Fold this protein.
Amino acid sequence: MLIFIIQLIVHQFITCVTPLPPIIRIGGLFGANDTEQELAFHLAIDRINSDRNILQSSTLVPEIQRITDGDSFHTNKKVCSLLANGAIALFGPLGGQTALHVQSICDALEIPHIECHSNSRDMMSDHISINLYPKPSSLSRAYVDLVKAWGWKVFAIVYEDNHGIVRIQDFLKEAQQYDWTIKLYQFSDRPYRDIFWEIKMTKVFHVIIDVNRLNIFTVLKHAQQVGMMTEFQSYLITSLDLQTINLEDFKFAKTKITSFRLVDSTNPELYSLMTDWTQLASKRGLNNASKPTNLLTESALLYDSVKLLATALQDLDQSQSITMPSISCQSDNQWQFGTSLMNYMRPITFRGLTGLVDFDQFGHRSSFTLDVMTISDDGLQKIGYWSGSQTLQPLNISDEWRDNFSYMSLANQTLIVTTIINPPYCMLRESSKTKYGNDRFEGYIVDLIDELSKLLGFKYKFKTVDDNKYGAKNETGFWNGLIGEVLNGKADIAVVDLTITSKRAEAVDFTLPFMNTGISILFKKPTTKVTTLFSFLSPFSNIVWVYVLAAYVGVSSVLFIVGRLSPYEWDNPHPCRNEDFVLENNFSLTNSFFFTIGSLMQQGSDLTPKAMSTRAIAAIWYFFTLIMISSYTANLAAFLTVEKVISPIESAADLASQSSIEYGCLASGSTRAFFQESNISTFKKMWEFMKNRDVFVDSNDIGKQRVEKGNYAYLMESASIEYSVERDCNLTQVGGLLDTKGYGIATRKNSKYRGLLSQSILKLQETGRLLMLKEKWWKQKKGGGKCTDDNKKSSSVTALKIDNVGGVFVVLLGGLSLAFFVAICEFMWRSRKSTAGCETMCEEMINDLKFSFACQSKSKPGKRKSYEDNVNNSSYNTLSQPQVIRGQFTNKLDY
């Protein structure tokens, strides 16, 4: 005991007589773009040296070296030069591969290494280093808590490099237990907008972005360019420096952009530093250094790290005497006080620019606090905080913003829903028992609200609007109907077939449309059907009839010519009188026309072709008539059984151009406003007609009753017309849509319900649930499907055009050409055989042609010899040549 007391006294004496040296050198490693961080490092040293609350007898002297990331060789030389000059600790560099190299040197020589940047690794206890930046696993817990609070189930994560995926690996591990659907995207060398376009195509609305601070604005801008910066998208930025980015271009987009902030904006020391920034910069000779609007996280961490080192030096000085090192990288000598200095840093706790600074045994920040920041119309603002302390609730967010972000923020709330009784949207339930509350109602919007309540977890209570109006602004500037009840607080939301218009949107907010529609015309079906005297001509179009007539004339003419040319069509009418050299041809001009018309009528005739050529013509004509008659018969039955119904009006233009049929619309609603404000001449004319005749009605039911009475057209939304014509077979829709509009749910301005309801409507649309509800109430319930679609008229039966039957004409022409060719061959062959010794073949052919083209069946030729004679008498040349009888041809050819 006596020896221990003596050693303690000696140690205290040595400590008192050997205090810290007056100059303490610390090294700083900065890159070319780290101007603000370097200045914050200098300013922190100046504050320590000027306040004298810490290190009262020593002065910190910064030794700065600028390095290039990835240049390990020059980094090694500059680190060794700092240690040779007596630096007792190294700050930086701020990220990159060189940070690992610097740490390895400090570990080898036991020089404290203080880091202030995000990295992808958690340090071990044997490292002579400490990092004021929160470790990745702690930040991952913060991200998980925030995503859970927002209620995200499906989202995308986009990152820039491999370090990004390593930083969020703890987040991915924790996400597995929540059954989240996560899609990973890496920017790599592609433009950011290509990635966001892929995300948009997959219909993912929530995105976590892990990119370098310098690229955040570009990333968000590219998202905006592809339409991914709307009120339906939500973004979580992993960077802690979102407050330093200019978000002016995004604050009015209603996009939910969230991030964390480590810098404590309420710290008085931060306010003092920012106030004296310019003065302190000038003192350091940095007159061109502009004061930042918001301090970077790394700058604030560097400021706190200098204070941490100074406090640790003071504590170490009070416990033992230390000497300043002069370390050489070429030797194996280590600084004997390096580990002690690092051990004195870890227990230190103080409140700095980044909040509470304390560490665990591994040198990690433990009880830090992150501010939850989000974008609004006024810029980035704090909406809550996340605490890494084990004793506090991790995430605290104001109820207003939790409701704005959370998908289930309407849970256990009761919404008052105002509506109008209008089938099929909302109807009173038919029952033998008295119904109360929501059980009184049924219909499309009742089912719609029920589906939305299942998604969002809210309860609801229906009420009918007091004045039975949709909503219009009166002369006093107040809104009536559904819109008025939402504005005056009688209801939270209004839903029925409520059209989204610009004037209504000025007063209330609308969700995404749950149904698209447009104005159309409801009219009574005509009862008289149009018949015509020549309905039998309808199966063929006019051009086809012309072609058929041309084919008939052409085939008859060709048959006549070929019949005259072919020698096989000439016969002896009196076979028993061989001495009479008389030949007869049955295919005269009139007979040829009769033969073709008889075949066309499928009645036949007593004429039969004998030659190959004429038979070919007949065969191809039979084929032609077979196809044409079959097509005509098939189409005629449809035309005679389906008669056209002609409506007196076919469009809005027809309605505007006449005055015998009255037309009108609902007295209060978007349809009236459409015609009243339209600049189109047709619609302006219709508005003047309706206004002058006062044909407005108080409800759609009254309008439909007037239509059923006749001579009245009612203008209403096409969705309601579809419902009516499915049940009343006397009504029909005339023309197309006059405009395009949608039905939406009305909420008060800036209501928290709007975004949540819109997201849920989008989900119902994607899953097909909205279509199923429409099919249910339009075509199945309450008499749906009663009327068949008579509006198709005879549009399903159209006249056959030349494109339909053109092939048979081609076949006909081909057959005629073949028959004509065969006839020429026959003619030439017989002419060669019948040539007399004194005549040439050409003379004989000319004589035969003259005879063939004579429009008679019989004739008395001169030099022309009988084909029959040539056939029966092979010694034709020995006969005496008959005398030519000139004159008018008779019906027979006599020799």
Remarks:
- The chain has 30 helices and 30 strands.
- The two ends are 172 Å apart (CA to CA).
